[in-house]
C-alpha cells in the first residue's frame, strides 16, 4: 500500500492556494468540482510522492480544528530565507529552541492548521 493524499477542509480556497502554492511552493495538479457542493483541489511538491487535497465546501460552513490533528511538515534547505519571508508577510511563527537538534519553525495556515518547516533534506 502507498499513502495517497491528506485532505484538509478550507474556508477560502484562493487564500489557501496562496499559502500552499504561493508561499510553500506546492503546485495545483487537479481541481474537481463536486456538483454545486464542493471543490476538491489537489496539490503536490516537485517529487509528486504525496498529494494534499484542499476541500472547499461551498455552503460557507465553519470548522473546528480537532484535537487529534498535529501538523503538516515541510522541509527547506534555507530556513532563514523562509523566516525572512514569513516576517515580511507579518505572520506569527515559533522557532525551535536553540538546544534542539533540529532547526524548524511552526506557523499557521489560513485556517489555523499547524505547519512545521524543517531545515534539511526530506527523509
Task: List the defining traits of the structure above.
2,3-Dihydroxybiphenyl 1,2-Dioxygenase, domain 1; four-stranded mixed β-sheet; single chain; 123 residues; alpha/beta
What order do the helices and strands follow?
EHEEEEHEEE
Which of globular, elongated, flat, extended, rod-shaped describes the shape? globular
**Proportion of residues in extended strands:** 35-45%
Task: Determine the CATH superfamily of the largest domain.
Answer: 2,3-Dihydroxybiphenyl 1,2-Dioxygenase, domain 1
Could you tell me the CATH topology label of the largest domain: 2,3-Dihydroxybiphenyl 1,2-Dioxygenase, domain 1
CATH C-level name of the largest domain: Alpha Beta
Topology readout:
Layout: E1 5-10, H1 13-23, E2 27-34, E3 38-44, E4 51-57, E5 72-76, H2 79-89, E6 94-95, E7 104-108, E8 114-119
Parallel strand pairs: 1-4, 5-8
Antiparallel strand pairs: 2-3, 3-4, 6-7, 7-8
Amino acid at each position: 500500500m502507498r499513502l495517497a493524499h491528506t485532505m484538509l477542509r478550507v474556508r477560502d480556497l484562493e487564500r489557501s492556494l496562496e499559502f500552499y502554492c504561493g508561499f510553500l511552493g506546492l503546485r495545483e495538479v487537479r481541481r474537481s468540482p463536486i456538483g454545486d457542493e464542493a471543490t476538491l483541489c489537489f496539490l503536490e511538491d516537485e517529487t509528486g510522492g504525496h498529494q494534499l487535497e484542499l476541500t472547499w465546501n461551498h455552503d460557507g460552513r465553519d470548522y473546528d480544528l480537532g484535537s487529534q490533528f498535529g501538523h503538516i511538515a515541510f522541509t527547506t534547505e534555507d530556513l532563514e530565507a523562509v523566516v525572512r519571508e514569513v516576517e515580511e508577510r507579518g505572520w506569527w511563527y515559533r522557532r525551535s529552541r536553540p538546544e534542539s537538534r533540529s532547526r524548524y519553525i511552526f506557523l499557521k495556515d489560513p485556517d489555523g492548521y499547524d505547519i512545521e518547516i524543517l531545515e534539511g533534506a526530506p527523509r
